[in-house]
Amino acid sequence: RTVYVNGEYLAEDQATVSIFDRGFLMGDAVYEVCAVLEGRLVDTPGHFARLRRSMTALSMPETLDNDELLHVHQELVRRNALREGLVYLQLSRGVADRDFAYPGSETPPTLVLFTQAKAVIDSPLAHRGAHVITQPDLRWGRRDIKTVQLLYPSMAKMAARAAGADDAWLVENGLVTEGSSSNAFIVTRDGRLVTRELSSDILHGITRAAVLRLARDVGLVIEERAFTPEEACMAQEAFMTSATSMVTAVVSIDGQALGDGRPGAVAARLRTLYIEESLRQAE
Ligand code: PMP
């Protein structure tokens, strides 16, 4: 693979980052993941806007502008002949002596991008639907900033695996926040679409926003509010959204089957609409 590090395109085994990088030492880095379909990138404006938001929240110094970022993304897709998968971007505050205080703004950030091939449209999990378990949400309080502090979501995912499930939905104060790496939705028995409102308790998913817009366009009633695991278990359907899983149906929660135990119709419809729109808009 060809990867990108601070202005250079390199073979992956030639690419290096300092052991003093604050991303490595302090988790002082933000990231984005853009899906690639048919060799083109999905919703880069949304991902770049969220990257700026994360950078502002952490007072990170400027990096490439959006046109330059798009160029690097497209160049990596081209050089790696990537048809379907993702481009990962990570921006850290750069290299400095270890200190909790941020280094001065003269310290250049570290920007790394790489591609990863993955079946996005024809994903096996989307076909059969995901089994999820609930886990306490023990993450920090600024989940709206997309940082690389991903240890707790990894632990939650491993707990799901250990329980024979695919993923975890996180619960705080008796309410579902989101999935370990996705936003969580339910469809009530009378057909309303429910997903938690935006706040610092969840990541503001780019796919979440697109799916809500598509759902509104087709006339679904939308309620942006928190829901309990009990309400989710009683729902007609559930699904989760993320850039590379798009819309993935959830077929059971804590061992309790939803609806008829197969991916639901609303999830399937929204997945199709989202894929169609992404293919139309990708660049
Ligand atoms: N929530 C969390 C915690 C995530 O890690 C992700 C994916 N990175 C999402 C939601 C979905 O965000 P997006 O649709 O922008 O990929």
Automatic annotation (TrEMBL):
Pfam families: Aminotran_4 (PF01063). It catalyses: L-valine + 2-oxoglutarate = 3-methyl-2-oxobutanoate + L-glutamate; L-isoleucine + 2-oxoglutarate = (S)-3-methyl-2-oxopentanoate + L-glutamate; 4-amino-4-deoxychorismate = 4-aminobenzoate + pyruvate + H(+); L-leucine + 2-oxoglutarate = 4-methyl-2-oxopentanoate + L-glutamate. GO terms for molecular function: 4-amino-4-deoxychorismate lyase activity; branched-chain-amino-acid transaminase activity. Keywords: Aminotransferase, Folate biosynthesis, Pyridoxal phosphate, Transferase. Coiled coil: none annotated. The keyword Nucleotide-binding does not apply. InterPro entries: Aminotrans_IV (IPR001544), Aminotrans_IV_CS (IPR018300), Aminotransferase-like (IPR036038), BCAT-like_C (IPR043132), BCAT-like_N (IPR043131), Class-IV_PLP-Dep_Aminotrnsfr (IPR050571). It comes from the Bacteria. Pathway: Cofactor biosynthesis; tetrahydrofolate biosynthesis; 4-aminobenzoate from chorismate: step 2/2; Amino-acid biosynthesis; L-leucine biosynthesis; L-leucine from 3-methyl-2-oxobutanoate: step 4/4; Amino-acid biosynthesis; L-isoleucine biosynthesis; L-isoleucine from 2-oxobutanoate: step 4/4; Amino-acid biosynthesis; L-valine biosynthesis; L-valine from pyruvate: step 4/4. One of its GO terms (cellular component) is cytosol. Its cofactor is pyridoxal 5'-phosphate. Its EC number is 2.6.1.42, 4.1.3.38. GO terms for biological process: amino acid biosynthetic process; folic acid biosynthetic process. Involved in the biosynthesis of p-aminobenzoate (PABA), a precursor of tetrahydrofolate. Converts 4-amino-4-deoxychorismate into 4-aminobenzoate (PABA) and pyruvate. Acts on leucine, isoleucine and valine. Belongs to the class-IV pyridoxal-phosphate-dependent aminotransferase family. This is Aminodeoxychorismate lyase.
